[in-house]
Design brief:
Keywords: DNA-binding, Transcription, Transcription regulation. The protein folds into 2 domains: 61 residues, Winged helix-like DNA-binding domain superfamily/Winged helix DNA-binding domain (Arc Repressor Mutant, subunit A), CATH 1.10.10; 178 residues, Translation initiation factor eif-2b, domain 2 (Rossmann fold). 37% of the residues lie in helices and 23% in strands. The chain has 10 helices and 15 strands. The strands form 4 sheets. Strands 6-5-4-9-12-14-15 form a 7-stranded parallel β-sheet, sandwiched between helices. Strands 1-3-2 form a 3-stranded antiparallel β-sheet. A 3-stranded antiparallel β-sheet has the order 10-11-13, with helices on one face. The longest helix has 15 residues. The chain starts with a helix and ends with a strand.
Length: 250
């Protein structure tokens, strides 16, 4: 029965490419917890990738979720988060924006009058900033490219030469026990490095990523100054954030 369900899930993902867990549960008439367990098993076999409350079919263990798909998932929520986060930025600040689709949505809400100095590791993010904010200074860090983003040792060495006023980061999962996690080791290393290179760290995360745990530990939650999300977190998370003196915006 277990393997039969997994085969059905794979067939669904072949047809739709991406589905939310809630939609799979509705189609298959299973509980969301059952679907989630099946997806975990399929991800361990490198057959699917869990992402943002759903899953994608992948061709091999090296395949990352396509950029255009990630940008469309939870778009309204990400825009809401981006608009809120933009209120944290002041004039003449140096800002690091990571390569996630969530932080990408911050870019459209920047105030052109603020005279910002912007840094990123993502080609799409840098291109958007250059096209839309000709008065801003925009720097993209180099390194090994993956999914339109630079990472690896070269990127870390360059990043370590800077101290940013604010670093805007996202992640693939946030869990009360395991904290902030990501799928790729290079993503996690970059974010851990930023612990010592940003005066303020702001975590942008939509509600689908709560209670998700991925393979690699990011920076410590205690290093985060502000969490920006799209709706009020549970009381358990609010108490966790309060205990670590983290401001929450939603």
């Amino acid at each position: 029965m277990f393997q039969s369900r997994q085969r059905i899930i794979l067939e669904l993902l072949k047809k739709y490419k991406y589905l939310r867990i809630s939609k799979m549960a509705e189609i298959l008439h299973y509980s969301t917890s059952t679907v989630r367990r099946d997806l975990i098993a399929l991800e361990q076999q490198n057959l699917v990738q869990r992402v943002n409350g759903g899953a994608l079919l992948i061709e091999s263990k090296f395949t990352e979720a396509p950029v255009d798909i990630k940008k469309r998932i939870h778009l309204d929520e990400k825009r809401h988060i981006g608009a809120l986060a933009s209120n944290l930025i002041n004039k003449n600040q140096s800002i690091f924006i990571d390569g996630s689709s969530t932080t990408f949505n911050l870019c459209q809400f920047l105030d052109p009058s603020l005279n910002l100095t912007l840094y990123t590791t993502n080609i799409d993010t840098a291109g958007y900033l250059i096209r839309n904010y000709s008065n801003f200074s925009v720097t993209i860090f180099g390194g090994e490219l993956y999914d339109f983003e630079a990472g690896g040792n070269q990127t870390i060495v360059q990043l370590q030469q800077h101290v940013f006023d604010i670093a805007f980061l996202s992640c693939r999962g946030l869990d009360k026990k395991f904290g902030i996690t990501d799928r790729l080791e290079k993503e996690a290393i970059l974010k851990r490095t930023l612990e010592n290179h940003a005066k303020k760290i702001v975590l942008l995360i939509d509600d689908s990523k709560f209670d998700e745990v991925l393979n690699f530990k990011d920076l410590s939650l205690s290093m985060v100054d502000v969490v920006v999300t799209n709706k009020k977190p549970s009381n358990e998370y609010l108490n966790l954030f309060r205990s670590k003196h983290i401001k929450v915006m939603f």
